[in-house]
């Protein structure tokens, strides 16, 4: 009986002792809110000269630089410079680069932290890190707080819950953005790739009330970026950065930096003293299509592949200068047995319905050529079919470019659509792709001689560049629709 009483007395004490020890052990190794690293403005290794191709964004941010340099000049006029600046745009366009350049130009202390570092499994730790970050920034003003990848904590809250770590972290960020007073010389900058997914509370006036688009550069911007990334590289006399800029429509600053680096690597492999145009061409092939592969392809498959790529190249010529073929090859790269590289030679921002149909004809021409020449089709057009489906879907669901009355709601995410409307929508999409395929076959049959010439040249040389394709198709007259309005098209490889 005494033993039983003793156990009943000590068991709860032992249990609670174990719980306390476990809690102390957890707290011992729990991550703590550390001060964000600070870089003095004069030590930031990026200047305005390094930011090329983003003139509009730079103009928007010049006043922020002036404010941090001379706050009183604005205050005596009653002006309040926006304290929250959101840089948004596709990945790789230079949002972080712009933020660093602002810090360098203004001389402000620069605090940079990724929003993902605020998200932890322990509730409240993310909020504590944000508090610490802003405390440090206020203490060492003038300063810039840069939050990269804001999407990690700034996505819209669902259901209004405030118990998750994400919600607590976001709430603390909102509190800090509201906590500035007139004497605080702190500017908050953030970068986001998905502006539409951010919580509306972040975007209201007084918080991130200035939104600066950092978009992919135009042709002049691409040339300026190429000059920045090649200023420490020896270029051969045959390199024309203007030509490269026109061939890289849709590429971002990060893409162009990678292109220049890959070109230098190709030149280094041959122990060349200068980077040649051929090195840039090889770098473009690697970036767009991947590494060259050593696959053994049978003569039968090689012939099918040659006609497939010839179909793409001939159709690119037939639809005019909208999507000219820069190269056609039956050399394997990445997962592609061969590919045709199409690039727009100018920046375009709008497309007509006819141009979308022409683009679908180019993508479907490989399969059409197979059917015309061999009477059967292969699985080589899988990537082409994915692209054609995406174009037709956008034309029907988003742009109202089908033969269905545009007043009908055709959005793909509208779950209230009737079965009849869904049937009309799917039928409209099918009619667009069927029409493009039949037109592709008709045109290739009409210009069968050109198709045979290009396929024979591919079987002989394996790779044809722009000038060789133009020579082979010199007597083939384009049959393009006339076009007045047009849109940016990134380099498009037909991966077959």
Describe how the helices and strands are arranged:
Elements: H1 2-29, E1 38-39, H2 55-69, H3 71-75, E2 84-88, H4 95-106, E3 109-114, H5 125-139, E4 143-148, H6 151-154, H7 165-178, E5 186-192, H8 200-203, E6 210-213, H9 219-230, H10 241-246, H11 253-269, H12 277-289, H13 299-318, E7 325-329, E8 339-342, H14 353-374, H15 382-397, H16 419-446, H17 448-461, E9 463-465, H18 466-472, E10 492-493
Helix pairs in contact: 2-4, 5-7, 9-11, 11-12, 13-14, 13-17, 14-15, 14-16, 15-16, 16-17
Keywords for this entry:
496 residues; 9% strand; Methane Monooxygenase Hydroxylase, Chain G, domain 1; 10 strands; Rossmann fold; four-stranded antiparallel beta sheet; six-stranded mixed beta sheet; 18 helices; Helicase, Ruva Protein, domain 3; alpha/beta; 3 domains
Explain what you see:
Strand 3, helix 5 and strand 4 (143-148) form a beta-alpha-beta unit. Helix 15 packs across helix 16. It contains 18 helices and ten strands. The protein has 496 residues and is α/β, with parallel strands linked by helices.
Kindly report the name of the CATH homologous superfamily of the largest domain.
Peptidase M41
Biggest pleated sheet: 6 strands, mixed
Assembly of the depicted chains: single chain
Number of domains: 3
What sequence of helices (H) and strands (E) makes up the elements? Answer: HEHHEHEHEHHEHEHHHHHEEHHHHEHE
Mean pLDDT over the full residue set: 80
Q: Spans with pLDDT under 50 lasting ≥5 residues?
A: 482-491
Strand content: 5-15%
Number of strands: 10
- Percent helix among the residues? 40-55%
* Helical run tally: 18
- CATH topology name of the largest domain: Methane Monooxygenase Hydroxylase, Chain G, domain 1
Q: Judging from the principal axes of the Cα atoms, what is the shape?
A: globular
Strands in their spatial order, largest beta sheet? 1-3-4-5-2-6
Reported CATH architecture of the largest domain? Up-down Bundle
Which CATH C-level class of the largest domain is it? Mainly Alpha
Helix/sheet category: alpha/beta
> What's the alpha carbon Rg, rounded to whole Å?
29 Å
Distance between the termini: 84 Å
